[in-house]
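Hi all, long-time lurker, first post. I run a small reading group and we've been trying to get comfortable going from sequence to structure in the token notation. Rather than ask abstract questions, I figured I'd post a concrete chain and ask someone more experienced to write out its structure so we can walk through it together at our next meeting. Sequence below, copied exactly:
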Amino acid sequence: MSILICDSNCELWYTRAEELGVDFIPMPYFFEDRELSYDLGRETDFKNFYKAMREGTMPKTMALNPEDYKRFLTPYFERGEDVFYVSFSHAMSGTFASLYAALEELKARYPARKCTVFDTKAISLGAGLQVEAAALKKREGASDEELLAFLTAYRDRLGCYFVVDDLMHLKRGGRLSAAAAVAGTMLRLKPILTFNEEGGLSVYEKAMGSKKALRMLADHCIREMTAPEYPVYVLDADCAEEGDRLAALIREKRPEAEIRRQTVGPVIGTHCGPGTLAVLFIGEKRPIPLK
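-- Answer (accepted) --
Happy to help. Here is the structure in token form:
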């Protein structure tokens, strides 16, 4: 039987990870001259983080190196345990080159051990929903092979839509071209973003202004959510009032939905910036973004 792990870029809240018995790899970021790691919200000062960003502080994210991964994974292999790692999107970071380099070395040292890596092709609670579902499936006694088949189908049902307040944050992180960021800002365009088939970010549609964008996020969940047995997550990056409004709009039309509210963590927040809103749920199929 393998041990299920994730990384903190899945943003599953620390109490939920503990309830499910899921270990996580802390992902690093650099903020106010300090190197920190996201702890799934246990001791994170979200208010100070976003306040500093609004005042001009620009945090940075960092990839782990092979030694970091070896340090985290070695204790499992030493105990004779296999690992099933449900990871954030490989298209979002170069850190996975380090992961696979570490696994090559560990395979030579522990040839009897196995590490299965599942790419959620999502980030934040787009990955976290998949971690949560995987943990519940393992509780039912699913083997690694059964878990892999389940997650592959479940991943293709993930609905995720989000909108950012300042397009320049996506531009700085290389997620949006400079021309698109400037044009969108000048025209007050609010692109509704989603994950593409590779696990990167793509524009799904465009809204004129924040109010229209919020309404469109709600409408997508109201129309497309088909599995109320799974939670709906509404996330905000230091814009709780808008997040509560989004949750209320969904709850009004889909009262059967279990809506969970959460703050976007600092690693993801570095790239999307304060004012970001997102909704994540399980539907019939993954949205297909504009080409």
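A couple of things your group might point at:
The two ends are 41 Å apart (CA to CA).
The chain is about 40% helix and 25% strand.
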